[in-house]
């Protein structure tokens, strides 16, 4: 989807889905602080927690299921002009199956965007998507730009869901060219409040990695993810945007910065080694996560800066360090000691080389 700049117009009534979860709830809280927005409707099937409700301030919570056609009454009845769809699930809900996840993700988005297409008041739609749509393989370029697609079809359910949902948004843009549509493809998101989601991999003193590979990772801080969604809701920019922090971090560097000891193993036993070292943790890893730790994924963020006008506060390394700090991991090996030992070794090697010359 190409980019198109429209006349600036402050949203008046914003609807945010997934309001009881981290991204939706925090976007609602940010938007509620903007006095130029008249109303913010926080939509979800579950009531947000007490602390999140407090931070949402003047926002109005609406208990509704976007899979139900009755969501049209909310959008039409309140003359919603901006819709931020943050309610996408990266894994099945507790006790649920892959079929339940697909139903919530794909059918929910299809119903929501069908309503947006028919609602005359809607003027902009923002989708929280993921870099998972690019997949992870040995054929990947150093950096994916927004026009590229997966070199190998993604095997994970979440990636397939997001590819389908992005298609709904592009269809909406074709049928309603008066609606500004923004798709934000987030790099893997980390931060102190999301520490529980990915820190299990680094919980064990010995962390398995794929032998012969050193996945190159680009990450996004949780605060930047919320800020990007909030910015996209306030602007009238149309397009697809990669959203990631500056710089990159190899998996071996990440393991070291977390104070863990790396254990390279063949990919065929990567999950098995993880089970032995970390119990059931890696049993729950999705196909996307396993592929990411194998190959990594780089993103070209030129369009993010030049067209969307978003500049992340945290680099990839800073986001990772904040994530590790929030996880309160006790280092098995002091990363500073490893750096000093490496520098000393390099110095000795350099001195030896000089003596031979």
Write structural notes for this entry.
- With 357 residues, this protein is α/β, with parallel strands linked by helices.
- It has one domain (4-337): 3-Layer(aba) Sandwich (Rossmann fold), CATH 3.40.50.
- The chain contains 13 helices and 15 strands.
- The protein has helices at 22-32, 50-56, 71-77, 98-118, 157-175, 195-198, 222-234, 251-257, 270-278, 287-295, 302-308, 316-327, 335-356; strands spanning 4-5, 13-17, 39-44, 60-63, 82-85, 124-130, 180-186, 189-190, 206-210, 216-217, 220-221, 237-243, 249-250, 261-265, 296-297.
- Helix 1 packs parallel to helix 2, helix 1 packs across helix 7 and helix 4 runs parallel beside helix 5 (157-175).
- The longest helix has 22 residues, at 335-356.
- The relative contact order is 0.14.
- The model is unreliable at 1-8 (pLDDT under 50).
What's the domain count? 1
Structural class: alpha/beta
The CATH architecture designation is 3-Layer(aba) Sandwich
Beta-strand residue fraction? 15-25%
Strand order of the largest sheet: 1-12-7-6-5-2-3-4
CATH topology: Rossmann fold
Radius of gyration: 22 Å
Helix content: 40-55%
Topology as a string of helices (H) and strands (E): EEHEHEHEHEHEEHEEEHEEHEHHEHHH
Largest beta sheet, briefly? 8 strands, mixed
Q: DSSP helix count? A: 13
- The CATH superfamily is NAD(P)-binding Rossmann-like Domain
Q: How far is it from the N-terminal to the C-terminal residue, by CA?
A: 58 Å
CATH class label: Alpha Beta
Contiguous runs where pLDDT drops below 50 for at least 5 residues: 1-8
Overall geometry: globular
User: Count of DSSP E strands?
Assistant: 15
* Overall pLDDT: 86
């Amino acid at each position: 989807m190409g980019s198109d700049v429209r006349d600036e117009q402050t949203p008046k009534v914003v609807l945010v889905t997934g309001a009881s979860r981290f991204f939706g709830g925090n976007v609602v809280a940010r938007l509620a602080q903007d006095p130029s927005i008249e109303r913010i409707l926080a939509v979800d099937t579950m009531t947000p927690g007490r602390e999140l409700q407090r931070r949402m301030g003047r926002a109005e919570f609406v208990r509704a299921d976007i899979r139900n056609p009755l969501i049209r009454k909310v959008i039409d009845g309140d003359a919603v002009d901006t819709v931020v769809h943050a309610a996408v699930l990266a894994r099945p809900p507790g006790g649920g199956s892959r079929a339940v996840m697909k139903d919530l993700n794909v059918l929910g988005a299809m119903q929501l965007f069908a309503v947006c297409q028919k609602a005359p008041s809607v003027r902009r739609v923002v989708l929280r998507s993921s870099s998972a749509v690019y997949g992870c393989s040995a054929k990947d370029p150093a950096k994916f730009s927004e026009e590229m697609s997966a070199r190998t079809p993604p095997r994970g359910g979440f990636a397939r869901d997001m590819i389908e949902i992005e298609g709904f948004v592009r269809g909406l843009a074709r049928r309603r060219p008066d609606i500004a549509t923004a798709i934000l493809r987030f790099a893997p998101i980390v931060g102190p409040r999301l520490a529980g989601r990915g820190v299990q991999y680094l919980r064990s003193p010995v962390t398995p990695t794929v032998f012969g590979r050193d996945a190159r990772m680009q990450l996004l801080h949780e605060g930047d993810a919320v800020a990007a969604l909030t910015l996209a809701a306030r602007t009238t920019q149309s397009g697809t945007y990669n959203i990631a922090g500056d710089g990159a971090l190899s998996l071996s560097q990440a393991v070291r910065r977390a104070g863990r000891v790396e254990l390279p193993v063949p990919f065929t036993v990567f999950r098995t080694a993880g089970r032995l070292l970390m119990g059931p943790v890696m049993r729950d890893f999705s196909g996307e996560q396993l592929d990411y730790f194998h190959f990594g994924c780089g993103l070209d963020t030129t369009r993010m800066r030049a067209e969307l006008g978003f500049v992340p506060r945290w680099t990839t390394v800073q986001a990772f360090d904040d994530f590790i700090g929030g996880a309160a991991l006790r280092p098995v090996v002091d990363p500073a000691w490893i750096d000093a030992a490496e520098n000393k070794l390099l110095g000795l090697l350099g001195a030896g080389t000089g003596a031979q010359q």
